[in-house]
Design brief:
The chain has 224 residues and is of the alpha/beta class. It is 50% helix and 11% strand. A 5-stranded parallel β-sheet has the order 2-1-3-4-5, sandwiched between helices.
Length: 224
C-alpha cells in the first residue's frame, strides 16, 4: 500500500489533495501536516513513506528551503511540489532542487491524481501546459550545487539558519528554540562549514537565494 504525506497549511486544500490521492491510489495510507516541522516529523515517524505532496509556502518554509530540508533529510522520499507559483522558471528550479514533479494549485483533481501516479511510478511530472517552456530552460548547475550544500544540514541546523535569515541574534534564536546560546553558536559553526560560507551574512544570503518572491529567486555568490 503506498504511503503519502500531504503538507499544506490550508485545511481545505489538504482535503482536496487527499481526495485526489485517494482517486489515484486505492487504497493508500495518507498522513497530513500543516507546517514544515510537522511534515518533517511525520516523515520521520512514517518510515515507509513513498511520496510527499509539499506546499512551498507554509509556516517554517522559506521558498525552496522546505524542499531542500525534505530532500536532505529524506532523500528516498519522492517530492511532488504543489504551489500557486507556476512560472516555468520556478518549475525548473524545483526540479533542479530534486523534486520529482510540480503541480499547480489550480490544476483539476484529475491532473493531480495523474501526477501522483506518474511520480510513484518513478516518472517526473511537469504540468502539460508548462512542459515546453520548462524543457526550454537548461538545468542550472548553480541551483543543484546550492541544493547539495543545503542537504548537508540537519533539521535543527536548518531551523537555526532560517532564524538567522530572519535577523534574529544568537540569544533570540536560543530562546525561540529552547536551547542554550552556546548550542546556537555550535550550530552556526557547523552550518558555516557545511555550506562553505564564512559568516552570518553569507549564510543568510544563501537561504534568501531560495526565495520565490520575484518569480526566480536571487542567485547566491559566496564571494559577496
Amino acid at each position: 500500500m503506498p504511503s503519502l504525506v500531504i503538507a499544506d497549511d490550508h485545511p481545505l486544500f489538504r482535503a482536496a489533495l487527499r481526495a485526489a490521492a485517494q482517486d489515484a491510489l486505492a487504497p493508500a495510507h495518507i498522513a497530513e501536516a500543516a507546517d514544515l516541522p510537522a511534515a518533517l516529523a511525520t516523515l520521520a515517524d512514517t518510515t515507509d513513506a513513498d511520496l510527499i505532496l509539499l506546499d512551498l509556502n507554509m509556516p517554517g518554509s522559506h521558498g525552496l528551503s522546505g524542499l531542500a530540508c525534505v530532500r536532505g533529510q529524506f532523500p528516498a522520499v519522492a517530492v511532488l511540489v504543489v504551489s500557486a507559483h507556476d512560472d516555468p522558471r520556478i518549475v525548473r528550479r524545483v526540479l533542479d532542487h530534486g523534486a520529482a514533479g510540480f503541480v499547480s494549485k489550480g490544476a483539476p483533481s484529475g491532473e493531480i491524481a495523474q501526477a501522483i501516479r506518474c511520480v510513484l511510478d518513478g516518472g517526473q511530472w511537469v504540468p502539460p501546459h508548462l512542459a515546453a517552456a520548462v524543457a526550454a530552460l537548461p538545468a542550472d548547475a548553480g541551483e543543484r550545487a546550492l541544493a547539495a550544500r543545503l542537504a548537508r544540514l540537519t533539521e535543527q541546523q536548518s531551523r537555526v539558519l532560517a532564524l538567522v535569515a530572519d535577523g534574529l541574534l544568537n540569544k533570540q534564536i536560543a530562546d525561540r528554540l529552547a536551547i542554550q546560546e552556546r548550542t546556537v553558536k555550535a550550530h552556526l559553526t557547523a552550518i558555516f562549514e557545511r555550506l562553505g560560507v564564512r559568516n552570518r551574512t553569507q549564510a543568510s544570503g544563501l537561504l534568501r537565494a531560495l526565495d520565490l518572491a520575484d518569480g526566480t529567486g536571487a542567485r547566491f555568490d559566496p564571494a559577496h
